[in-house]
Amino acid sequence: MSVPALSPTAPAPPADTTPLGAILALSLAALASGVSMRLTDALLPRLADEFSTTLGQASWVITVFAVAYGLSQALFGPLGDRFGKLRVITWACLASAGTALLCALAPGHHSLLAGRLLAGCAAAAVIPLAMAWIGDAVPYERRQPVLARFLIGQITGFATGVWAGGYTAEHLPWRTPFFGVAGLFLVAAAVLVLARRRLPPPVLQPPGRPGGAFITIVRQFRAVLAQPWARVVLVVVFCEGAVLYGPFAFIAAHLHQRFGLPLSTVGSMVMGFALGGLVFAFGAKVLVARLGEVWLVRGGSWLMATALAAIAFAPAWGWAVPACMVLGLGFYMLHNTLQTNATQMAPERRGTAVAAFACSFFLGQSVGVALAGMVVDHAGTAWVLAAGALGLLGVAAAFNRQRARRVGGDSTAVA
What we know:
The chain has 415 residues and is mostly helical.
């Protein structure tokens, strides 16, 4: 597996210990963020009925969250470098609790869209800055398995969000889960405060290059974008977000409409995505060592494409259960590899670099969901899923091709 050399100006991560307590606290915050992110997926048919809109129009609750999440990275990445990543994540959890309450109390569709927009802004700091902090605190050779374990929280949050949305759609007022999200974020903020108090100063705030005024923020992002490999990773993750999460947002609606399944049942089935992710998280150390980056990317794309095609065209709903698990495994094989590359795109500006990565990923999601929302009312959900399958194969092939060129021409890379 190719490992890019550390920049001589990069923060030097501690080589001997892994701050497990802080990583667990960050994983809890990622769980809350994951719930908030995916809560509305299985709720779409219910929200369409509630507000007398089409399925495509209802999907804007996902789009506005993703747009706000992506664009807010321009602020939070440099803020994390300036004030401390863990501190900014704690602030973001408190703000996210407030925005969840705004969503719960929204009187109509447009006010719910405004609440989701603010929710995306507030949650934007959590997962990217957590990844950047882990990049500061954990050496590269141990980073991918540690990132995978941290992502257990996010994966569990995704599953819980989809399930809670589906269960709510059948049994509860649509506002109920937003109150639960607010409580989750408050708990995460409290645990983060306790974890920060137990860290020694060099681990709490590893040395880096602090951000400052607006002009400094612009310079930070320009410095990241000046790196050719950073541009490749950012374009690839944008495309990945578009071709996967555009179709993913409509899996629940597809299974509900095609097979007449209750949304609560569909939400439970889509949780298989998280189970596949957990398989990767717990087996990451072995998978990374055995497969390497090339086969993680290639195998992940084929697993995802096969799973989306099965969900789209399988003759019986039972196929969707293992397919969702395979989809999750394939996604984390590909995405965790991209995340690990993102933490090393610009080590001396790691917060900004990972923020740019998250910005690209979620802007890709917003574009994907918006395009899928425009197509789904005319072509149907099955063809949206099939298009995503083909797109994923293209994205993975392009990344491996660019990676091969980089390794072949980069004297600092090691096999």
